[in-house]
Amino acid sequence: MKLTTFIALFTILLSCSATDDDFDIIGSKDQFIITSTIVNDNYPIYVFLPKNYDSNLKNQLIIALDGDARFNSIANILSKKVEKNSMPPCILVAIGNNKQRNRDYTPTVYAHGSGGAENFYQFIKNELIPELESRYSIDSSNNKTLIGHSFGGLFTQYVMAKERASNPFNKFISGGTSYWYDSGIIFNFEEYYASANTDLDVIFYNGMGSLEGGVMLASFEEMNNRLRSRNFPNFKHKSELIKKSGHSGSATKIVKKGLDYVFGK
After folding, report:
1. Fewest 10 Å CB contacts: which of 63, 166, 242, 250?
2. What are the pLDDT digits (tens) for 135-162?
3. CB of 138 within 8 A of CB of 91?
4. Paired sense of beta strands 144-149 and 60-64, if any
5. How far is residue 31 from each of residues 7, 10, 28, 52, 171, measured CA to CA in Å?
6. What is the pLDDT along the chain (265 residues), one digit of tens a residue?
7. How far apart are alpha carbons 229 and 89 in whole angstroms?
8. SS (H, E, C) the chain
């Protein structure tokens, strides 16, 4: 499938400088725009190369959603973890175009979304990752990490329920997941996967703020209980309520705790 890229590439060394959000990030940043023929849209791609990124090694790829808003804060977390030697050589890529999150992160057509998750997943698999592998030194194994919050958490768990053989991700960090979407449709995707498979060989961190509403908290508990009840032999899972935090306030803490868990640090 033909992929057209419009490149507005720049590299900024950030050893001691602050970003717009006043973060002290040690490493370098790139940015480019990729045009997806699958989704028929353009995506700003934000790239952070931490200090331990090594062009002579196959680095772990971490992909985060809501890149326009979340890139700097996640890069800051990653930078600090690298300074503490608690991350393998890695690269962070955050996908922008947040204004289309109701299209890209939702798996079905519903009042608050247009059900473009499958196309967005195919864009990541078949257009974005190959482009990243042509630019950077990335481990080509299906061992990549996906991070999403709210609708992004919904998409993250949708991808986790996709078949494993061609799934590029085996580590998932989901926060404040919109379990309510389309009357809990994500539970149907989980049920379908469980009915067709005897294992789920992934590492999954699931977080939510303790001050979320009752429906969110009840759905969070239900999903975690369902997953535990499957007894998948190679499934590694941690769920956690972030104390005294609401929907937005829990996001950064969930990313930090999630990276600690999925990378075993």
Report:
1. 166
2. 999 999 999 999 999 999 999 999 999 9
3. yes
4. parallel
5. 8, 6, 10, 19, 24
6. 434 433 333 333 232 223 334 467 999 999 999 999 999 999 999 999 999 999 999 999 999 999 999 999 999 999 999 999 999 999 999 999 999 999 999 999 999 999 999 999 999 999 999 999 999 999 999 999 999 999 999 999 999 999 999 999 999 999 999 999 999 999 999 999 999 999 999 999 999 999 998 999 999 999 999 999 999 999 999 999 999 999 999 999 999 999 999 999 7
7. 34
8. CCCEEEEEEEEEECCCCECCCCCECCEEEEEEEEEECCCCEEEEEEEEEECCCCCCCCEEEEEECCHHHHHHHHHHHHHHHHHCCCCCCEEEEEECCHHHHHHHCCCCEECCEECCHHHHHHHHHHHHHHHHHHHCCECCCCCEEEEEECHHHHHHHHHHCCCCCCCCEEEEEEECCCCCHHHHHHHHHHHHHHHHCCCCCCEEEEEEECCCCHHHHHHHHHHHHHHHHCCCCCCEEEEEEECCCCCCCCHHHHHHHHHHHHCCC
